[in-house]
Amino acid sequence: MPLLSVIRQEATIPKIAFFIAVILLTGNLSAIVDSVFHPEIPYFDIEHFIVGISYNILVCILFLGFAIFSARRKMLLETISESEEEYRKELERKVEERTVNLIRATEELRESEERFKAIFDNASDGIFLANPESRRLYLGNMAISKMLGYSPEEIGNLGVEDIHPKESLAIIIDTFEKQSNKNISYAYNTPVKKKDGSIFYADICGYPLTLKGKKYITGIFRDVTERRQVEENLRNAFIKAEAGNRAKSEFLANMSHELTTPLNSVIGFSQVLKDGLYGELNQHQQEYVDNILQGGIRLLSLINDMLNLVRAESGSDELRINRVLLRDALKASAAIFNEKAIMHNLKLTLQIEPEADTEIETDSGKLTQILFHLIDNAVKFTPEGGSVSVQARKLKSSEVRKDDASETSALSRFSTNGDFIEISITDTGIGIRLEDIEKLFQPFSQMESPYTKRYGGAGIGLSLTKKLVEQLGGRIWAESEYGKGSKFTFVIPVRK
Prior knowledge:
Elements: H1 3-9, H2 13-37, H3 46-122, E1 126-130, E2 137-140, H4 142-148, H5 152-155, H6 169-180, E3 186-193, E4 199-211, E5 214-223, H7 225-274, H8 283-314, E6 322-325, H9 326-336, H10 338-343, E7 347-352, E8 359-362, H11 364-380, E9 387-396, H12 405-412, E10 419-427, H13 461-471, E11 475-481, E12 485-493
Parallel strand pairs: 7-9
Antiparallel strand pairs: 1-2, 1-5, 3-4, 4-5, 6-8, 9-10, 10-12, 11-12
């Protein structure tokens, strides 16, 4: 093996030193030997010796440099080899990791697409994608295909003019453009034409979107044909009910008139007999005439209440506004029941706060009716030894009890200065159950069973009272504790 090859392959420090010594020794030794055995040849002179030594040193330096270079090159190659191995492993790990992530992302994308497709195809509303410029459809789901009667393949060949009737096309195209420009979102009760030419109605929600730089408009159709039919049926039913209600009101008004005419005769002649204008009556006759008179008066009051209720419901009862001293109106109404209160040992009191002792503008006849019904009920349902109190006070608009916004607006629009009069009728009577309070102001509603009824009445008074209070621009409510008594309160404006 050549020496350089050995040094290149086995370049270690001890071996390099050994080779240097061999070169130095062998080079100078050959010069000495030649001078001894060949004295006639002057080989060994000092100059040749120095030159030989210098040459050997130079060769040694070259060998040493080459050996060091080889050693460092080997170390560097080993280092590079180790780094390459680590880099290769790290690269393989990252490639494997990214491959796993890519597979996972691909799977998630596939699942997402499947979910979207399932939702898109199974949505109950019809969904389509259209070109806002050409007004042509790109695609649609199964619901829109069923609605229109076209196959999914045919949907992509349709335009807006193909799925709407000609007579509505101008309005629909204008709506389509407004939806494309985000001016509106919904188009309600839009006529839609099927493949067979039949028409159904849909609420259409349209909004623009951009996909990969291209503009589209998405439309959602909701078939409202059944809803329209239900609304139409309800509208017709309401019209029929209104017609029936008018017929009922007209019938009751006519019947009331027909009943009051002979009833007034019965009451009038009963009063004549009672007063003895055609001769004295014995005790039994007097009792019978009294019963006829009281029954006639009660029946006349009931008929008048029914007639007033019909008028109030139909809105045909006009207000007759006049100035009324509140104290006079309250005293006159309470005086009607003084005798009845004394007979039943009831304490009937009237309390008017100084600010409420004023003149108001209202329909005095209707106010008297309201007070009559409320005081009559209080006296009727209060047992002997109890009490009935009528109270009045003046309130600002902000102090009036309001249960909802509609009542707030109803109250405020009737008063110019915001002042109201609150009138309360409180009794210590039998009271009302909590579950029955909601039925108090319903027509013909009574708290007693007709089979166990102890108190008279047809269930019209409170319903009529509520209508009258509302006609005067106020509201009424009730508070009660069963077995302890009730309190009915209403408010009306001071000025109209």
